[in-house]
Amino acid sequence: MSEKDIDILRALSDNEVDELMKLYGDKYGPLNFHYLLFYNQRKWDRQLEAAGISKDDNAYISLRKRFYTHRKGDFRKYGTYVSLHRDIVQSVSFFSWQSEEAAKEEEEAEELFDCLEQTERIEWSSGALLTNVDLKFCARVKDLAMRKGASGIQARECFGMILPHDEALSVQVPDLLSDFELRPLSDDDARMVHTIWPNNREGSFEYLRALIRFNRTLGACRSDTGELIAWIFQNDFSGLGMLQVLPKAERRGLGGLLAAAMTKLIAKGEQVTVTAWIVTNNWRSEALLSRIGYQKGIVNEWIKLLPA
Length: 308
Hints:
The protein is of the alpha+beta class and 308 residues long. The chain is built from eleven helices and twelve strands.
């Protein structure tokens, strides 16, 4: 028996993840980002199963988040979970509402931090990315990461922009200029998109190919040559992500058009809140999304751990 077989983190079954998703939906509603994380992963699970893709197929490892809880706890009590995911690096998400019910400050989220302190599953010293970290957990998590072997920390404060489903359905999509055409991205586009993507590195090409195959995407192409000059992806919260307009096509309104078109496309296809994460000082993206109707939701941190 390996150490991970007796790790403090116990893997949740698909049925348990469904139950946890319902608990978060009932407690926080459909605008909650943890609920959306569960929702999107279970959607991916069904898509991969329908496509006959094995859980051991590494080409699609980036679409397989695994959810865990305290081995001796009951996730139904505090909603305690840790999500582990590998695309470019290991990504880690976690939450517990124990802190909201704790009688004393020193009791806050102890079940969650027992998991983070004792697990061997998190790659603290190998450059893991901690995503969507609640601000009240940040100081303690950063201290833990340094004690666990991270050589440094790069934290970015981000806020979630939110558009309820009914409002997303009624978004007005600007008219497309006659110079351009919209179409879904194809596997043939993956190499070019990957070359320009700021986060490209080992393993990221397969990640983009998987997103193109199973997520909604839109690309704007020149009508005369078919050249792809802008694109947007649906992210792993079922919202907007990876919006890119090439410099040669900037200031033509393509960013706002793609964001509005993807918003409506998601809303028509899924009964889900549409969201987008942006860095807090990215005023340009905030203004673009605000014009569509998005409003600021929560503020959290993305914490990049520097490898030892």
